[in-house]
Amino acid sequence: xxxxxxxxxxxxxxxxxxxxxxxxxxxxxxxxxxxxxxxxxxxxxxxxxxxxxxxxxxxxxxxxxxxxxxxxxxxxxxxxxxxxxxxxxxxxxxxxxxxxxxxxxxxxxxxxxxxxxxxxxxxxxxxxxxxxxxxxxxxxxxxxxxxxxxxxxxxxxxxxxxxxxxxxxxxxxxxxxxxxxxxxxxxxxxxxxxxxxxxxxxxxxxxxxxxxxxxxxxxxxxxxxxxxxxxxxxxxxxxxxxxxxxxxxxxxxx
Length: 254
Hints:
Blueprint: H1 2-6, H2 10-13, H3 31-37, E1 44-47, E2 50-51, E3 57-58, H4 61-73, E4 77-81, E5 105-108, E6 120-123, H5 125-128, H6 144-157, H7 160-183, E7 187-193, E8 196-201, H8 206-214, E9 220-221, E10 226-229, H9 237-253
Parallel strand pairs: 1-4, 4-5
Antiparallel strand pairs: 2-3, 5-6, 7-8, 8-10, 9-10
Helix pairs in contact: 7-9
């Protein structure tokens, strides 16, 4: 119930009402509006350094630093949700490394065990000291098989050469997408980093997703007008160029 209450998407919340009370939402990347919501009664601020479901919107460094400062002033925890954008997705082991801003807590999940079910919360020591055995537990949490897989996956992703390849591929793919924006007026904006990219249109993006699927390429939407690319971190230059070429063909045919 806590995590459902924290999402800003009503379609996910409605089936589970009533929700946890006392939660307020701030405008992402709006320093003044966000800082106004933080006071001495604030327990924690939860945010994604790059909004994934929200349309692939990277935070600005100024924004994250301002939120960190406000949390420190009011003794509130800063929690980064890196379920989608952590573990190499943005070209760094953790997304917040791009910004030089450290959270008090960090949530991880999907990529951690290479597709097997696992979740994790990383805590600064002052947060961990407040948790006693039994306060946070799960029936199947910490299973030895899944944790063994997660350890192998983590070591692979944490390899500096692996992360460098992700950053190099990001420069390639991001460059191709930006070039398409200059060529086709239907594209309003290109946003992203690493291997998470959003392409915003003036019209629904779902038909473009369908065209990609016809060509055996999986893409998805992040909001009604944003096409989202989440390539596997092990993808190569040839495959990325193929995706960009297919995208150009789809745009040309519209």
